[in-house]
Specification:
Helices cover 44% and strands 14% of the residues. By secondary structure, it is an alpha/beta fold. β12 and β13 form a beta hairpin.
């Protein structure tokens, strides 16, 4: 079980906010494979408060897409609070604040991970958002373990971390890398463990280096966090949620999805994307997702290159038809192990 405010989830593994990926269709695919809760891709506060077509699109949710969190990023406490209030009114079940994004263009505008270097402003944002959102709507926070490895950065982290819970936030997600690290080097799970111990019975989720079901089980076991958010590990791999469900139930790890099964799932994802975005935009979105789905294919390099070359929906469907043909005798599927690595499929249990 995972408790986030009044939400009681039957499984402690959720889909993280993934900029450019975790739109409605991707979230629905994750739910079909076992994710109990998903977070919308991060949204700038100004896009929520400014009227227009994009605002309407960002705030439109499928009836099946619940519970869902809306992640916000910005630098102005008042505007973030207004955006959070709007998201809650639009039907988002949770409002999540982003203090974790390490991209230079974000840091340069004093957003995301930059706010870990300004604890006073970060705390003001937390308090303003919590005050603006109805009490029945949980507010959560995503943060990295600091700007860098300095003692000052660590003190600032715990000042913000403690203030979040003092302000009434329902949960905090801790990513084990610093902002300076961006996505390079290992995620420091020992720091995540320290944060959870420091928080006591408050809800803490862990993040970072969760690419396989075994990784997820190890983080839960080694850090004691209440749950985890899976980010890059679930792009093109919604099966990861069912795999973890099996391991946590002490069942054998399911075999990797066959090529025909992959094709059925990818095709369903494409149909959802077309329904949500139209063929033209869906072709662009599904191109990058096809590249990630290709990592599970036994001919993954050729399939990846085929998806890279697509320009239209027809091109994309032609790749799907050729490389996921259920009548062809495909080689056995091999399971991914972290970014760019593969291991032979086999039953494993969560340690």
């Amino acid at each position: 079980m995972l408790q986030i405010g009044h939400l009681r989830l039957d499984f402690p593994v959720v889909q993280a906010a993934l900029s450019g990926y975790s739109d409605g269709p991707m979230r629905l695919m994750a739910r079909r494979h076992g994710a109990p809760y998903c977070i919308h891709e991060v949204v700038l506060d100004r896009l929520v408060v400014q009227p227009g077509k994009l605002r309407k699109q960002l705030l439109t949710l499928d009836d099946q897409d619940h519970p869902v969190g809306g992640q916000l990023m910005g630098a102005d406490p008042a505007r973030l609070a207004a955006a959070a209030k709007t998201m809650a009114a639009a039907g988002f079940d949770v409002v999540d604040i982003n203090f974790g994004c390490p991209l230079r263009r974000v840091l340069g505008r004093c957003r995301g991970g930059f706010l870990l270097s300004e604890p006073s402003r970060a705390i003001e944002i937390i308090e303003c958002v919590r005050d603006a959102v109805p009490r029945e709507t949980p507010v959560t926070l995503k943060m990295r373990r600091g700007v860098d490895d300095s003692a000052t950065s660590e003190r600032d982290f715990f000042r913000i971390f403690d203030a979040a819970f003092d302000a009434g936030l329902a949960a905090v997600t801790v990513h084990g890398r610093t902002v300076k690290q961006r996505y390079a080097g290992p995620s420091d799970w020992q720091f995540v463990k320290r944060a959870k111990r420091h928080a006591g019975d408050k809800t803490v989720l862990g993040s970072g280096d969760l690419f396989t079901a075994d990784d997820i089980c190890r983080m839960l076991d080694q850090t004691g966090v209440d749950g985890v958010t899976v980010a890059r590990g679930c792009i093109g791999n919604p099966w990861i949620f069912g795999e973890v469900r099996a391991l946590l139930a002490s069942e054998p790890l399911p075999r990797p999805p066959s090529v025909p099964e992959q094709g059925r799932v990818i095709g369903a994802h494409f149909e959802l994307s077309v329904a949500a975005h139209g063929e033209r935009r869906a072709a662009r979105i599904m191109r990058k997702l096809g590249i990630k789905y290709a990592e599970l294919h036994p001919e993954h390099i050729a399939v990846r290159d085929a998806f890279v070359a697509t320009k239209t929906a027809a091109d994309w469907l032609a790749v799907l038809g050729k490389w996921y043909d259920p009548t062809r005798p495909w080689p056995p599927v091999r399971r991914k192990r972290g970014p760019g690595h593969l291991i032979a499929a086999g039953a494993r249990r969560c340690e």
